[in-house]
Amino acid sequence: MGWFGFGFARKKGLKQQRLEQASPAEKDDPQLRNTALLELSRRLAFGQLQIVDEVTEAMLHEEDYFVRWFDRLDERGISCPIPELPWFALVDSLQAEGLAREIDWKEDSYEVASVIEDLLARKQLLPEEEWNWENEVEEIIPTYDFLVKMFKLLQVHSITLACMDINSDCYVLITVPTDEISKLQALALRAGYRIHEFE
Questions:
Q1: This prediction's pTM
Q2: Between helices 85-96 and 30-44, what is the axis angle to 10°?
Q3: What is the pLDDT of residues 188-199, one digit of tens each?
């Protein structure tokens, strides 16, 4: 899925908006942004330290990171190191460990439900016997509407379905305990990025 695609025009102002919401110190200090992103990486990594290592490499040795992961980045249409490289490093390394999943903006409900089940199982956030949404996937509705529906169903179990914004025509899904989401969103914002819920 390309980095630039459907929804890009709608989202292109988000980065500026995020920077405007950040404090003056955060806007001017890359170190503060990097520290926030590394803390976010640790919280999302679920003990997989290589995730934090990859984000660190993308921050400190962007050329080396770009060469090492050229194929992965090329699939996104990223042909040279960009300022957002550490964010993509986090997204891609989380996906490699099954801790995030990228889906198309028009994915069918069955596939979306399967992806969410995989994410829940990876962290053992919800016992399989609690996955009671067979009736929900039978209804054909737009992908975003189905994500909102799943968000509400998971909230009952104190689980939040969220999306890591990569300015693309897809959703990078994560599932986290609801009591963690505010902190994760604050760290993402401090780093200059966005994690949003499906409300």
A1: 0.85
A2: 10
A3: 999 999 999 998
Q: What is the DSSP string of 59-75?
A: HH-HHHHHHHTHHHHHH
Length of the chain: 199
Among residues 165, 166, 198, 164, the alpha carbon closest in space to that of 43 is found at 164
For residues 151-177, give the mean pLDDT: 96
Q: Secondary structure of 127-180 in the HEC alphabet?
A: CHHHCCCHHHHHCCCCHHHHHHHHHHHHHCCCEEEEEECCCCCEEEEEEEEHHH
Query: What count of Cα atoms within 13 Å lies in the side-chain half-sphere of residue 117?
Result: 14
What is the Cα–Cα distance from 164 to 187, expressed in whole angstroms?
Answer: 12
The gap from C-alpha 29 to its chain's centroid, in whole angstroms, comes to 23
Give the separation between CA 174 and CA 109, rounded to whole angstroms: 17
Q: By percentage, how much of the chain surpasses pLDDT 90?
A: 77
Q: How confident is the model at residue 61 (pLDDT cuts 50, 70, 90)?
A: very high
User: Is 80 exceeded by the pLDDT of residue 5?
Assistant: no
Taken in order 17, 27, 100, 133, the sign of the CA dihedral is negative
Euclidean distance between CA atoms 29 and 50, whole angstroms: 25
**Three-state secondary-structure class, residue 52:** helix
pLDDT of residue 138: 76
